[in-house]
Amino acid sequence: MIPKIKVCGITKPEEIQALNDMAVDYVGFVFATSKRKITVEKAIKLRKLLNKDIKTVAVLKDPTDDLVQWVIDGQFDIIQWHGIIPEKWLARIDQNIWQGVSICNEASLNEMIGHHNIVGYVLDGKNPGSGKPFDWELLKQLSTQSNIILAGGLNAENVDTAIKTAHPHIVDVSSGVEDANGKSYEKIKTFVRKVRNYDK
Length: 200
Fold this sequence. Notes:
This protein has about 200 residues and is α/β, with parallel strands linked by helices. It has a single domain (about 5-195), classed as Aldolase class I (TIM Barrel, Alpha-Beta Barrel), CATH 3.20.20.70. About 25% of the residues lie in helices and about 25% in strands. The chain is built from 6 helices and 10 strands, in the order E-H-E-H-E-H-E-H-E-E-E-H-E-E-E-H. Strands 1-2-3-4-5-6-7-8 form an 8-stranded parallel beta barrel, surrounded by 4 helices. Strands 9-10 form a two-stranded antiparallel sheet. Helix 1 (about 15-20) runs parallel beside helix 6. The protein starts with a strand and ends with a helix. One of its GO terms (biological process) is L-tryptophan biosynthetic process. It is an enzyme of class 5 (isomerase). Pathway: Amino-acid biosynthesis; L-tryptophan biosynthesis; L-tryptophan from chorismate: step 3/5. GO terms for molecular function: phosphoribosylanthranilate isomerase activity. It catalyses: N-(5-phospho-beta-D-ribosyl)anthranilate = 1-(2-carboxyphenylamino)-1-deoxy-D-ribulose 5-phosphate.
C-alpha cells in the first residue's frame, strides 16, 4: 500500500504552491516550541491558500488550555497532540486526534493509548522535530500499521526503506524537504514522487 503524505511545519505563503501542485494529503501547522512555530491566526490565513482536499493538522505539545481552545475554534481537521492528553480534552475535542509518541525502545510502544477520539499515532524519535529517524524495525511487532503516521528524519533518500520496514498509513516529513530558506518546492516534489512511485 502506498502511504498518504503529510508535510509538516508550513510557515509561509510561498510554501503552499508545492503542496497544492503535488496534492499532498495533509499539512501540519506547528503551535509548539519550534523554529517552525506560527500563530493560530497565521495558520488560518495560510489554510485559505490550500486546496480544499488537503486536510490540516494542528500540532501541539503540552499546550495551555487557551491554545487548545483557539485550535478547536480554528476548526483544523486533526489535532496532533504530543505529551499527556488530559481527559477533559479527550472528552471535549470533536476533531480527530493523532497522539504523538516518541519511540526510544520497545516499551515506548505501550504509550499508544486507546481512545475513540484517537485515530492515529505519530511515531517519532526521542526528540521530535530533530530530523533524526528512530529504529523502524521496532514497529514490526505492532498488530496493525493502519493507524501509524511515521515521522522523524524522513527524506527522499530513505523513505523507500521506511515504507518497506514500517508499512505506515501516512509518512510525515518536515526537515527532509527543507533547504536554508524553509520548505523547498523541488524537495517536496521529489519526496512526493518517491512515495507515490513506491514499489513500481
